[in-house]
């Protein structure tokens, strides 16, 4: 279909090569050819005759060859989708001249060597992120995850003031997190997981009030969690797992009223789990596994009625398993193993479907036969109350006897 200055032929079961004449229509503003079976190369002079082109969408076809460097001559481009094709060789560095570009998607091709930048996840790209990336001031998404990128994060990333999603996960990038990231005030998602980053988490990240997803897991980050992070009251997902973070969990963790996924596992946190964790009323997954946390499991966790997964294993938690956890009717996965818990395992609510795997290697648990533990012979909690009452009565009788004798 051709309408005015727009060609839209997406998902039309087209095959064969794209007619070269299409790329000579100087008034064209948008070309949509995605989701077909088109093959062949893009013309080497693409862009030279498209001064008004704003959108070029050819994703999900069978196009091959190189991405022509002349594509940068289409200087008004805001959207460029060449994903899910068979392009190979270098990504042209001239893409950095497309100053109006807001979306670039080149994922799932056969691109190698140095990256140009932008949306290149899973492309086997090697090399360093060029500092010129900061010139792309109109970018709203930059995803380079799961590539063989090396070097450090360039400070110039902080110049991408319109960026909303920054994904640099699963690479070999090392060094510290630049404080220039704190200038990205429109950032909604920052994903730096599975790299070789070290040093502390910049406290100024807590000023990015638009942030909803923060993934810093599987690095070598050290020091304490900046208290400013607990000011991100609208954050939805926070992953700081598998680092070397220390200190205790502060009561202000309860500020994260909207969080649905919190993973602080495999660090070196100590102290007790604050009771304010019960204020995370929207949370569905809570993982504090493999730390040095101690003390009781807070009763307030039973207030987390949306909770589906609770993982507290491999800590030094002690005391009983709160019976109030039976209220967590949506709970599907529970792991309290490798702690110092004692007393009776609750039997109602979600505990009906649990096995001993959820409670292995604790001090003195008892419960139903399906857990393969000793029988409790009544509630330990109830027995302890009776014992206290008997001691009180006996003490009172003894006192009265002494008084009468005198």
Summarize the structure.
The protein is mainly β. The protein has a domain at 259-399: Leucine-rich repeat, LRR (right-handed beta-alpha superhelix) (Alpha-Beta Horseshoe).
Key features?
406 residues, mainly beta, Leucine-rich repeat, LRR (right-handed beta-alpha superhelix), nine-stranded parallel sheet, 31 strands
Largest β-sheet summary: 9 strands, parallel
Distance between the termini: 111 Å
Strand order of the largest sheet: 13-15-17-19-21-23-25-27-29
In round numbers, the mean pLDDT is 87
CATH class of the domain at 259-399: Alpha Beta
Q: What is the CATH superfamily of the domain at 259-399?
A: Ribonuclease Inhibitor
The fraction of residues in strands falls at 25-35%
User: What is the CATH topology assignment of the domain at 259-399?
Assistant: Leucine-rich repeat, LRR (right-handed beta-alpha superhelix)
Radius of gyration, taken over Cα atoms and rounded to an integer in Å: 29 Å
| Helix content, binned percent | under 10%
Oligomer: single chain
Question: Which structural class is indicated by helix and strand composition?
Answer: mainly beta
Overall shape: it is elongated
Question: Helical segment tally?
Answer: 1
Low-pLDDT windows of residues: 112-117, 379-392
**Proper CATH architecture of the domain at 259-399:** Alpha-Beta Horseshoe
Number of strands: 31
